[in-house]
């Protein structure tokens, strides 16, 4: 039975849910003639709600509870990941205001969709039942489908939403069928019950685990279910692409941590190794030939999914710490890179040139501030010190070496070196070419600059002193 203690110990979830509903009401309360005032009020309300969520989340960092009739977990692991995801949405909201105004899609429902998608991510992360994983995943996905097609007047945005919806709905069938097989064998979908039952290696039970794993592979963008990522990321609004490719991926990997831990999937390292290597190989090799920077970073995100997957070769305390540190750094560098890309979009007059590598030529001379920030993000994505991306890859590959998968670490390092090429190529375009094409002189991006600077400072601080993150991460296990 649900009681007031359940609500008292899930305040962050309640804040996010309430904020999403309040934003919808605010959009209807303001008169039509005061749309700018309503959108400004919604923007600042969103910032305040996210800040309150982080503050209350820190109060939950030492708790270890199972709430709502064994459906929701609150512990250090879930709280740390929640804080990371809320911080990612906070940066997304900061960077969205000027972009939405520039693209003339500044509608209040955008922020409401962000909050409801975050609610789905938090449910996935805190789930103690496969049904909650499904509910969270669908809530997140439905919001993503709408956000991907938020630029309704652009064909590319509509195509990305339709493609994402069709493939996502198809993979949902895998997840539901997997849950059905697991329930049919164990008699429950609850993590606690299944863990205590110690299910044997029955064929149907293993089929269920495989189907659920396939659904997670799709959501993380791992090989061979990565085909949707380039088109969806290219067509979606740029700030949405940054959020989906970083915060959304973090939620999927957070659910995978619980899935691998509860179901004791330490006996399939070869399968995970093959998936990780093929994902790294595909993402890095195909990214080499891209001429559109959003597609380039889309394939890069596939490669990064492969790096993170290496952390699932064996689920132990060190590998979980490595995965979480990587996710923290990945949100900052991936989201930060897309914030800069969105700002360059605003400066590019010719719509056909937007997001091509040609539009980044001479950025170092035209807008040195943007070029410096993007260079820092690309260095971190490449794993070059002193940024946090270096330590993320270091801990991930070290976890593989500790599990005697040295060959996986070697392959990953070599493929990571391949990835350096296409990151350096973008940097060369920015700093060693003259500007081409006409550009807007004015740039309304005060909050976007703030988001990008916060991300760079975080990457630099965590790169120079990774203990800033690890001291919290090590309290998890």
Describe the fold and architecture.
The protein has helices at residues 4-8, 11-29, 35-59, 76-103, 108-126, 130-148, 155-186, 191-197, 203-220, 229-235, 238-262, 269-287, 293-310, 317-347, 363-366, 368-382, 388-402, 406-431, 446-464, 467-473; strands spanning 65-67, 72-74. By secondary structure, it is mainly alpha-helical. The protein has a domain at 266-477. It has a two-stranded antiparallel sheet with strand order 1-2. A hairpin with a 4-residue loop joins strand 1 and strand 2. Helix 7 crosses helix 10 (229-235) and helix 10 packs across helix 13 (293-310). The longest helix is centred in the middle third of the chain and has 32 residues, at 155-186. The mean pLDDT is 87.
List keywords for this structure.
477 residues; mainly alpha; 1% strand; globular
Residues in helix, %: over 70%
Share of residues in strands:
under 5%
Distance between the termini: 29 Å
Secondary structure class reads mainly alpha
Low-confidence stretches: none
- Rg computed from alpha carbons, rounded to a whole number of angstroms: 21 Å
Number of helices: 20
| Beta strand count | 2
Q: What number is the mean pLDDT?
A: 87
Largest sheet features? 2 strands, antiparallel
What global shape is seen? globular
What string, H for helix and E for strand, traces the elements in order?
HHHEEHHHHHHHHHHHHHHHHH
């Amino acid at each position: 039975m649900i009681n007031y203690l359940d609500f008292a110990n899930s305040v962050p979830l309640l804040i996010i849910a309430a904020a999403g509903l309040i934003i919808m009401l605010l959009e209807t309360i303001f008169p039509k003639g005061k749309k700018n005032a309503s959108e400004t009020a919604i923007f600042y309300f969103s910032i305040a709600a996210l800040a309150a969520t982080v503050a209350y989340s820190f109060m939950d960092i030492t708790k270890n509870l199972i709430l709502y009739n064994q459906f929701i977990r609150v512990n250090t692991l879930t709280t740390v990941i929640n804080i990371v995801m809320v911080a990612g949405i906070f940066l997304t909201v900061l960077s969205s205001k000027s972009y939405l105004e520039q693209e003339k899609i500044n509608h209040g429902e955008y922020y409401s969709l962000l909050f409801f998608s975050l609610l789905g991510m938090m449910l996935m992360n805190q789930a103690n039942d496969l049904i909650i994983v499904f509910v969270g995943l669908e809530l997140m996905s439905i919001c993503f489908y709408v956000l991907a097609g938020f630029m309704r007047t652009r064909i590319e945005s509509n195509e990305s939403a339709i493609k994402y919806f069709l493939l996502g709905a198809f993979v949902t069938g895998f997840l539901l069928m997997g849950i059905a097989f697991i329930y049919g064998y164990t008699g429950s979908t609850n993590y606690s019950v299944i863990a205590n039952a110690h299910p044997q290696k029955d064929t149907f039970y293993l089929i269920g685990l495989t189907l659920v794993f396939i659904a997670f592979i799709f959501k993380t963008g791992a090989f061979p279910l990565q085909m949707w990522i380039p088109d969806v990321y290219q067509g979606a609004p740029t700030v949405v692409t940054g959020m989906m490719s970083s915060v959304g991926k973090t939620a999927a990997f957070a659910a995978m941590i619980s899935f691998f831990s509860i179901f004791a999937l330490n006996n399939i390292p070869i399968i995970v190794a093959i998936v990780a290597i093929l994902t790294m190989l595909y993402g890095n090799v195909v990214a080499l030939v891209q001429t559109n920077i959003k597609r380039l970073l889309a394939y890069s995100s596939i490669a990064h999914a492969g790096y993170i997957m290496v952390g699932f070769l064996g689920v132990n305390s060190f590998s979980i710490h490595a995965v979480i540190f990587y996710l923290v750094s990945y949100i900052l560098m991936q989201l930060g890179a897309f914030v800069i890309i969105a700002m360059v979009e605003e400066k590019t007059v010719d719509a056909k040139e937007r997001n091509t590598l040609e539009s980044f030529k001479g950025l170092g001379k035209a807008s040195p501030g943007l070029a410096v920030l993007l260079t820092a993000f690309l260095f971190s994505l490449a794993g070059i010190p002193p940024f946090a991306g270096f330590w993320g890859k270091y801990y991930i590959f070290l976890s593989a070496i500790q599990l005697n998968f040295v060959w996986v670490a070697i392959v990953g390092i070599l493929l990571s070196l391949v990835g350096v090429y296409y990151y350096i190529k973008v940097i060369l375009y920015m700093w060693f070419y003259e500007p081409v094409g006409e550009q807007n002189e004015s740039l309304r991006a005060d909050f976007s600059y703030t988001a990008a600077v916060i991300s760079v400072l975080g990457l630099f601080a965590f790169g120079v002193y990774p203990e800033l993150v690890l001291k919290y991460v090590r309290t998890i296990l």
